[in-house]
Amino acid sequence: MKLLVVKLGGSTAGQEEMQRWIDALATATFPLVIVPGGGPFADQVRLSQKRLAYSDEAAHAMAILAMDQFGIAISERHVRLQSVRSVAEVSRVLAARRIPVWLPAGMTLGAADIPVSWDVTSDSLSAWLCGQLRAHALLLIKQTGEYRNYSSVRDLADAGIVDRMLPTMLGRDTTLYIAGPHTLDTLDLPLATIPGRMIMQHGTPAEGMLAQ
Questions:
Q1: What is the pTM of this model?
Q2: CATH no. for residue 159?
């Protein structure tokens, strides 16, 4: 199987599902890269912006640094995981049969093709990384099952389940999957296929579904 990018949502932080997902992903028999959400670190950026009145530009940079912080925390949770900051480091860690955990600040802060906005979260940055790595599959792990009520990326964005920029930043050659807490109970380990539901993109119906 080709490379999979997996966004592990910050909403899993401190929940039982966080470690269960990490342990499951660590059994993967195919190459994958983990992208951390912002978790409680990004929540603090939002709260502090109200108190300190800093700009959205500053908040954008801080939220990306929050992803770095959550990524460092994730990297300590399994021996196969290793923090990385560049495409070259991703390649080296994959070659060593380990799992890169991407810390995005070094590659994304100041990038001309990434809008500076709260509309861009780890969802869109995961899609952006797919383009950098030429990965054709993206799995978003959410702490909700509400995504099952929607059938397209645009619908998910309108419902606030994924960020507003994901429909724009998701490449046409990238297949999107979403999984929630209930997915963990259906996994066959070691992980040999992409878990979750395949989502329609850009108005084109998905060709099928994997395990729900």
A1: 0.93
A2: 3.40.1160.10
